[in-house]
Amino acid sequence: MDDGAESLMTVHLLTHLGRAIPLQQTLDRLLEWLCLDIRLFLVSERVPPLRYYERYRRRSCSFPGISILLFLLEDLGEERIFQVHEQFQRPPWRCQRAQFANSRCAPCQQEYYGLEEQLPVWGIRRVRRGPEILRVTLHCSFDNFEDAVRLYELILQREGSVQKGTQCVFVLHSGPHAAVQLCLRQLPIGVTAEPPESAALQFKVQEIGQLVPLLPNPCVPISSSRWQTQDYEGNTILLKVQSSSRTLETNIGLSQQHDNTGNGRIPQDCVPVAVKQGDPGRRSREVRAPKGKPECAPVEACLGSE
Predict the structure, then answer these.
(1) What is the pLDDT of residues 51-78, one digit of tens each?
(2) Spatial contact of 155 and 228, defined as CB atoms under 8 Å apart
(3) In this predicted model, what pLDDT tens digit does every residue of 136-185 receive, in sequence order?
(4) Separation of alpha carbons 175 and 300, rounded Å
(5) Sheet strands side by side (includes 132-140)
(6) What stretch of H or E contains 238?
């Protein structure tokens, strides 16, 4: 895998001291089967220990907030699929099928595997045609689904493809051997998902000044080029601004105004450029403010510098 290859989305994973390199190697070995030409996952060490409430807090529903599925072609051989499945049977992977037994929204025939608590779960699916796919799925509560679609369309600056009315898929990368997708999946009424505390989705954006006022949750700077916010389900989102002299000046100005206000919110009058109106016929990109959502705690500074 080319370490220098860039991706529109990067998944940051946090682990304990001394665990980052082994987990990164585990993921790299797994993803070699898909022949991806981008680096999609970055594992970093969490410097401070997990706080008590983070380690032992449990929600009423154990359905995972983020799942990662590998769609493998049957035409490339049963032995190959068996070998990938066999990797999930070895440490540090653990089968998490039993944890979803009481969740009425998880199909009982599907198996998931995990590396650690508060990290996304993984699975394998067989396909008979089309490209092989690595799909990162965000599970959304029933009421938040449409707003989540508009939010990620705003961040990605592209429309998603709605499938069966309960899924929206964004194609983030299409290579000669495999594709990378971000998928939003609507859960049944009354079912909620638990966002992984030790994972963050990072997206590359061209301009932060136009984006911040449109986000449903506070967006705070954590470096000169990265900002942090949350989606409607509480998943951590990092926004990495593309490097340019003008963009850097804008980011520094926004960061300084944020520090001066001290309230974790970006003033409306600091936006340097007016927001462009959407094209006629497109779905509205106006996003709804979340109800009663607390401000997100800053992600640890130990995240990778990608």
Answers:
(1) 544 444 444 445 789 999 999 998 888 8
(2) no
(3) 999 999 999 999 999 999 999 999 999 888 999 999 998 888 899 999 99
(4) 32
(5) 94-95, 113-114, 121-127, 66-73, 132-140, 178-186, 167-174, 161-163
(6) strand 236-241
